[in-house]
Amino acid sequence: MMASITYLRRRFLMSAPSFPVPALDFGIDAPGVHQMFLRIGGSALIVSLVLTYVRLPGPTWLILTMRAAIAIAACYGLGMAMYMTYGSRIGKVRTRDRLLRTIPWSGAECVLDVGCGRGLMAIGAAQRVPHGEVIGIDTYGASAPAEQLYPHFGITADAAVAAARAL
Question: What is the pLDDT of residues 32-44, one digit of tens each?
């Protein structure tokens, strides 16, 4: 796979320390695991609901144990899927902000984010350097939402190549 550059560069000449960032989707972490939890939890919930209304032959203790185990699997699967969604949508942005607050920013830094993915850290850093610049580099693919970022930042392919050569 040929490596390309996702280029996020911002020069600020304004007095405010932040700029408006479009609502970007930074993605669900480990989407395959997230889907697995949803499928297991959803399937177990359906089976648990069906077993509530179906009379099964056998010892009562065995039937109750089976129903409880399936209900626990439903709660666990759906609970983990909700937790992963929260962590991906809210938790990682809060963690990024908490981490970036530990840095004593002067506002004129040049920040290089190698392996920026969808730009979570690069965008957070750009909000803190009103008179500096932020460069995020990553390979193109599913994790680099160029179609969302490029129009907002006015980035062109020529600018990305020039920035790579300037590094």
Answer: 999 999 999 999 9
